[in-house]
Amino acid sequence: MFSTLFVRLPYWLLSSILPGLRPRKSWTLRKAMAVAGMRAYVGTFFDTSLPFSVGNDPDQIADQPNADEIGFTWIPPLPEELLVGEVKDLAKGNDVQTAKVSGYWFCKGISMKAARGPAGPDEKIILHLHSGGHVMGSAHPNGGPAGPACSGLLEHSSSVRRIFSCSYRLASSSPFPNKNPFPAGLLDALAAYHYLLKEVGASPQNITVYGDSSGGNLALALARYLTVNTFPTSFPVPGALLLFSPTVEWAVTHTAPNGSWKRNQRTDFSQSFFRGYTQRSLLGKLPTETAYVSPWISPASLKLPADVLTGMFKGFPRTYIVVGDGEVALDATRTLRDRMVAGMGENNVELLEVKDATHDIVTMRFFEPERTETLKLIGAWVDSL
After folding, report:
1. pTM here?
2. Which of 108, 146, 163, 350 pairs as cysteine with 126 (C-beta 3.0–4.6 A)?
């Protein structure tokens, strides 16, 4: 705090006062200062181990008198018979069980009571998976990343009236208790998707799974789970994926000297998430090598085995990917796009690179006009499904 107030803040101001000195000349002074501040803020968590963003306790939220008003909902665990294959083995190895999940409904033009009701004929519904590096963040509508991510999309889509944001379990490791390693978050995301199918009655082709940052990583894992395993028609693949700044490798392999990982250090704030804590928390008892070679955790890793790459995205739904060209993970996202095109066909994958944008601007109401312009394009894509 001392260094930020008396050293960093003056330096950021002096180094951003003139447009030519800013990380991107198109950025306003506010953007340059905000990104630098966010980088320091996120870095503080990893430098000091202060748990300043651990999410919202669903048991406490459920007891609040306004729980219904803010769309809070309990959903049942993923049925045991739907936990199969490699993920079942990984869950056993990491002592992960299925669990009751919570989430929040966001709605537009309808009451919260209607938002909790059954799906209408041909109604489009979005399942949102929030950001936070798997270790922080919340689906709560106030004070976290889900609020602006969900309300922004609702505002700019004419065909979607409600979004369900899933509060998946957050992972942790030393110096905190070891909790919720992979696949805990994936099992929760699958439970939320199953809830939309079975209790809300939404048609799978009308569900878009929308994940930003680490939520995009979970959205990819959810789609993979439903394509590599054989289920009855009651648990099919969703209609579409929307990935905003998805985190697609938790062990950085895109490290070329002229690559985005080095080139975009001043225009991003997510670097601290890749310093090992998230990777360690996700892996639990799994070997470190898993972060490099597992398509569940790092689907864009350059170290994935050749046999894994073959048919890796076969059967995936139509996908729209958004990334800022100022992100350190830009190269990794391009690798993901290329792999998806190879497995799904060029017509089923679209990549939007937002000029001069940092990581996950959908959560940043100040990052204008890029945020609104991007949301309009996303809204048009969702409406076209």
Report:
1. 0.94
2. 163
Strand 349-354 and strand 207-212: the pairing is unpaired
Name the packing angle between helices 29-48 and 9-16 (round to 10°).
150
The answer to whether 127 and 192 are in contact (CB under 8 A) is: yes
DSSP 8: I
Name the domain count of the chain: 2
Note whether residue 53 is domain-resident. Answer: no
Q: Find the CATH number of the domain harbouring 162.
A: 3.40.50.1820
Q: Side chain identity at 286, as an amino acid letter? A: L
Q: Which domain holds residue 179?
A: 58-384
Query: Are residue 37 and residue 70 in the same domain, yes or no?
Result: no
Note whether 380 and 165 are within 8 A (CB): no
Structural Rg of the chain based on CA atoms: 20
Same domain, 87 and 27: no
The whole-angstrom separation of Cα 243 and Cα 308 is 21
Reading the block at residue 301, the tokens are: 């890793």
Could you read off the pLDDT of 97-144 as tens digits, one per residue?
999 999 999 999 999 999 999 999 899 999 999 999 999 999 999 988
8 A C-beta contact, residue 283 and residue 298 = no
Statement to judge: residues 33 and 144 lie in one domain = no
Give the chain's mean pLDDT.
Answer: 93
Domain contains 226: yes
Q: Give the tens place of pLDDT for each residue, 194-253.
A: 999 999 999 999 999 999 999 999 999 999 999 999 887 779 999 999 999 999 999 999
Tell how far CA 187 is from the center of its chain. 15
